[in-house]
Amino acid sequence: MRDFFVPLFMVSFVLLSGCHHSKKADEAVVVNADSLVVNIEKYNNAKVETEGTVIHICGVDKKKLKLKTDDAHIIKVVWQDTSAVFDEKWYKKRVRVKGVVRESRISKEYIERIKQNKTLLCHIDYSACKDSSWVQNKIDAGINSAYSDNQTKLLDEKMRSLNKDYVSVVTIVAEECELVK
Q1: What is the pTM of this model?
Q2: 3-state secondary structure of 61
């Protein structure tokens, strides 16, 4: 009889441990937004929950927002559901975001190409700006070149200050995003 219960106990233990482990892996780690940015290598590809203040929502399609941390670091937030958009009422409001962290890197070579082409960049993630009317307004005003130079200068300074040959763009692919009461 004892020989029957020992294997049964072991199988039950393994099954229950596995269930507990999978639930644990699905839980978000609550992390301070500044710590998330500063320690991106620790949180890259992890599910997190964090807070910050919305300081910009993309005017083109409302599909990305710029989240400012308490120490003025920037986190890009996009929805996991690519058809979803952010509510403009969130502008200048504090939000709580839960999702998976992704790091992308802006290389020194990319910045050099931007300098040569005088591309105007999105100030959320440094990709080429898709707001064609905004870009055209900069061109019509004759300030596109100076604006591009200023953007790349800031990227160069950020690389130098961090002693790296790239600039990290921290993104949260959001499953949930809500106003903080």
Answers
A1: 0.82
A2: coil
